Fold each of these.
Amino acid sequence: MIDLLAAATQVFPVSDAFPTVDQDYLLQARQMQALSFAMHIPLVCFGVAFPAMVIFMEWLGMRTGKAHYTAIARRWSKVMITLFAAGVVTGTLLSFELGILWPGFMSAFSDVFGLAFGLEGFSFFIEAIFIAIYVYGWDKLSPVKHMLTGIPVMVTGLTGSFFVISVNAWMNNPSGFDVVNGEVTNVQPWAALFGNGHLWPQLTHMYLAAFIVVGFLVAGVYSVAWLKGRRGAYFRTAMVIPLAIACLAAPTQILIGDWSARTVAEDQPIKLASFEGLYETTRGAPETILGWYTEENTIIFGIEIPKMLSLLAYHDPNATVQGLETVPPEDRPPVNVVRISFQTMVGIGTMLVALAAWFLFVWWRKKRLPESKWFYRAVIAAGPAAVVALIAGWVTTEVGRQPWVVYGVMRTEEAVSGADGIVFGYAALALVYGALIVATLWVLRKLARTPLPPEIAALEPGFGADAGAVSGDGSKEGGRSGTV
């Protein structure tokens, strides 16, 4: 089998092309960047998927004339702008980190990805303008005009992430430039970013993940209310629509995941070998579930399925899969980190598909929601689990590319800053994110306790004008609805 990494180094003459930086805190710099990604990516999911759900709910209200659809859209729009504001903070910090922590990468390749970051900036400003108009224009614009102001919010949420993911796809499969005497030349940014074979599977995988994460998180909130007996039209609709979206996206993700994995197998064989802890190049390679990769280059306590890796990666049970042995140890990622994150993503994804199958089967065969309390408890757990799977997927992608920041071209140690103070910056960043989490949860809590409109509360069991409502902490509150 052709060693694709070696082929890449022939295309880009990278031997000693970029100097290694004298930095004692490379690991801390990577962890600092990872912390920001872990904070930002769930918020990106809400930027991608939530506007579509909000606008769809508003459209249902216009189409049916039923007030509870519009009431849900109004409340969700406030959640949407709250999470957008939190995303602005995390996204801004990420932008600064790219320049501060990785100056070698930014200076060498800015001509390649600068176009995408510039277009992402335009998307962000348009989104910021229209999300404010949408949220504060409910009583100032006609229903049709108001809904139309939400369309740019939905579109720019998609395009902004599209441009950023195009850069990440290029980092995993670099093209569109040459390296001559340590200088990046002959740059073709359009071809590099938007003609990249990794873009479309990675983009589709992320977009579906966004709808899965947001759908299960939102449905989980209303499942709590459902278990407390709040089962009127408002709560039923607010739970069922995001749940249905997530349950339709979860099985589809299996097909997209297969597409992404086969792309990795073709272009990043060492990353694939790290997924499975495959040391020796093997014809008819097995799939090993669970287990621990040892210093002796074997997996202990794993469950081996013969020929399954070859079948999954190449749709041929006798295909040859390249092993870790084909590159020097310094060119391999940390195998156990990659394996555990990959198997966490796949394991949680499989459980979400099982939950989706439960919901879709009952809905299709019996035309009703599942009655078991365990189903709704599972939905409550599915939201946080989906976030864990999302972050595990990005750990798989980013750590699996190591030691390269640009695969086969520039090492991470060549991109990092040589400045002091990384440890102090890491601590400060953790404090900022801690404060942001507290502030965001406080705002969301305030929104959750806002009373329902009187015309909606009158139709909800236990939420009439004279009824004391059960608040989020289980206490009685006369005359106000502690709701979501």
Note: The first strand starts at residue 178 and ends at 180.
Amino acid sequence: MKLIQKLREIWSIEELRERIILTLGLILIYRFGTFITLPGIDPTKLTNMADSGSGGLLGIVNLFAGGAFSRASVFALGIMPYISASIAIQLFTLAVPHFQRLQKEGESGRRQLNQYTRYLTIVVTAVQGWAYTTYLRSTDGAAVLTDLSPAVFWVSTMVTLIAGTMFVMWMGEKITDKGIGNGISLIIMVGILARFPSSILEEAGARWSRGGMFAFVLEMAVLIVVIAACILLIQGTRRIPIQYAKRNIVQGGKMMQAGGVRQYLPLKLNASGVMPIIFAQAIMFFPALIFQVLGINQNNPILMDLNDITSVLYNSIYFVLIVAFTYFYTALIVNPTQIADDLKRNSGFIPGVKPGKKTEEFIDAVISRITLPGAIFLGFVAIMPAIVMLFDVNRAFALFFGGSSILIMVGVVLDTLQTIETYLLNRHYDGLTSSGRIKGRQGNMYQTSY
């Protein structure tokens, strides 16, 4: 009854209702588009191609695209080119003076950066579209092609893939502006969740045929534990007490005192979010590409291990890269010097620590200490799919036990629930939970998208 009451309260808020309807409508359009095949592709011959792309790194790409990659859909590349472009622009704002100035110009600078991101998305989509078209024309994919001439097929495929990615990007921005939650993150989550029911059914069927339903129940219990651990990883923060000195201010022609209260500076256990996993996955694609360019035999043992997400070599390198990128990205987005300067400018200080350089060193030491367990935890979450595959778990189902997929799903759900709860509290309703407010990634000072 309480759930029904909450749904009624949510539906009674007109603005929230309109935002939910718009979000669901655009998501439905996205899912419909993932089943529309590219021009020149015979849909009846896609089974073999889907099987060839279900394993290894291509399986991860297909997971993020919601199966559109293996179906040769007009949305085959999904939103990933836009994410790659966004990451590049974000790095430019840290290293290139022109982009740094734009970031400090407020709304006008943000619009210009968004425009650069869109332009770069077209370039990235063109490169990835060329690689995908080559994949379709390869030996494995040639069987799905119709009698369309190669030149027409290349042009039509490239144009369609670019248009498809830009349309998905537009839908994501519309959801962010007029819908509910972060549109890009929601589209990624929907793509991941689209394959979740079928993966569960396949795993349950496989366990039932072998008479091992107890093993399936145990797998679901482990999955719940992993989700709970990811929630702790996302919401975990170290709160540093901040004291603000009392000062006199003039407000409404009257002299008043401000400050004198204690607040907290929340430093996230995992300030980098899923970015280290995304960076590490991108790096793991390079060895196969280099080996292919150099013409090294595809049966080379090292190359085979680097393409096998269950191999010891792959997961060892993957784990080390994630730990390294966690420190790297945390150092980029959390600036102890800026935090210390802001505190000093606003008459704030950490009790027992001198303002200025000492505060900067203290914050930097705290970040270094909490980043290590966060990085190791994130590394284990990333390699969890390979670990559960050792226990004969279906590959498609195993991908939901860790990696960026589980972190994105948990983070997006928390953010969406936090947004809905904010609407309820603003209309003087009770929140979604009785134990306290829901904290998503947006509820902390430093947060990473996706």
Note: Residues 52-56, 443-450 have pLDDT under 50 and may be disordered.
Amino acid sequence: MFCVTLRSTGKIALPVVLALAATGFAQTATPAPQVPASSASAPVNTAAPKIEDRNAFIVVGVTVRTNNAKEAGGQGEIPQIWQNAMQNGVLESIPNKTGDGLVVVYSDYASDNTGDYNYTLGYRVTSADKVPAGMVAKTIHAGKYAALTSEQGPPQVVIPALWQHIAEMTPQQLGGVRAYVTDFETFGNIVDWGSMQMTAHIGLK
């Protein structure tokens, strides 16, 4: 696993490994690529998923079309999208934001965890009537979601650990069969990029 360090608009250094952590393992139902020993033994929150009935909402941000094989193989585009967003502060131009928490949306699945999908990094908004140039608006579909929260720690450790845990869960453990319509990740207000916590929301049929 690689790690490129960048700066978040002059604030705190952000490892781009966060991006890989958030996707290379995210949708995999097959064994994940090997990770450092420290990551392999990472603590995982094994609490039962919280089943949510979600209303639809909108996220505006930057997006790429990719797949897990590309991202896990080191040829992905997600690290670059994070780097551009954090270095250039492009997300700060999004109007109608409802908070400071970043949201990642997985949408427009070609099939399942093996196919292409759209990866969007942005913010939840109250309205998509003014989408900045170069950005898109994605709708999180209403429905049932299983919410699982990572432990708090280095993103390159705790985020892959959570997604690998999700990949190993049966539909009975997860609370249902994955729908592959929209999934999303939520991050609280990030104060320390080296000690983070993420909640994955998995769309269910």
Note: The two ends are 33 Å apart (CA to CA).
Amino acid sequence: MGARITPVDRVMVGLSGGVDSAVAAHRLIAQGYRVEALFMKNWEEDDAPGYCAAAQDLADAAAVAERLGIRLHTVNFATEYWDQVFAYFLEEYRALRTPNPDVLCNREIKFRAFLDHALGLGADVIATGHYARIIRDTDGCQLRLCADPNKDQTYFLYLLDQTQLARSLFPLAELTKPEVRAIARGLGLANAGKRDSTGICFIGERRFRDFLARYLPREPGPIETPDGRRLGEHQGLAYYTIGQRQGLGVGGVAGGGEAPWFVAAKDQAHNRLILVQGGDHPLLQSQSLTADRLHWISGSPPGPAPFPCQARLRHRQPLQACTLIRITERRCEVRFAEPQRAVTPGQALVFYAGDCCLGGATVDRAQP
């Protein structure tokens, strides 16, 4: 975690009910900070078990706070989440893009609404259980990779700015996930073995298509090959994503051979879903892309185009060599050293220089 930041004294930890934020709070207490915790409820449309189980998470957070001897505050950010995150989520799916709501949730809820609320309660800074590292120097704050490459979450934090990073602590930066669980067991925390949350909170364990159909109408249309051969019927282009293999309903197509089918394109003009066979099909490969909503953590581009760096198109993807061949205030054009599979409009494209996360953008269009 690095040297203690002065004159920071009071830290508000975002306590989710999971093991990561619990150990983050413990580490700060051990370092001598005055620590309090805040539990955020961000969704209340459906609290049924197996979906967004806020009641159980709150109970787990309360048990951790009691065990650590710290005060637990609660706050409901459901309105802010709906307005700032979920409305965007639906807008993107209506446009047949595939958004990443966790990225926006971090910027708008965990490091804006939470930060503002914590400062209002008298905290100097906030802390979370994210796996990432903040380096502070005379030029400001840098967001860097953490010690555990399997858990690094900088991909989801690229929209943070200097103000947000300056008021944040990531106490797990130097730890691996097994080490975090071992610490939790040593403390006797009941959530030491709690399963990591996966997927999107407000969808939970239910089928994604069924959830989305509550907000976006089904608009069936043909499933076809690139040459126009009909394979079946889709339920609505918004319910599918580029590179998708499961849930297509075209297994055993006559004359199709054994290779699995993948979504390669969405033809909005004719409401057609285009599938190809084989994960390495040329229509799934892209050497270049354009992206919009460009954001730099430092506040400005790291250099003029052409600018060589690395990037990833999905969480945990190994860093890919690339060049930003065109940079404007809000858009960029990127060419990769190697073709990239299933480049998906709406997803995050995050840039790195070594272990430093520079910022990122939202994929707009894949190019050959």
Note: The helical segments are 19-30, 54-68, 78-94, 101-120, 162-166, 177-187, 208-213.
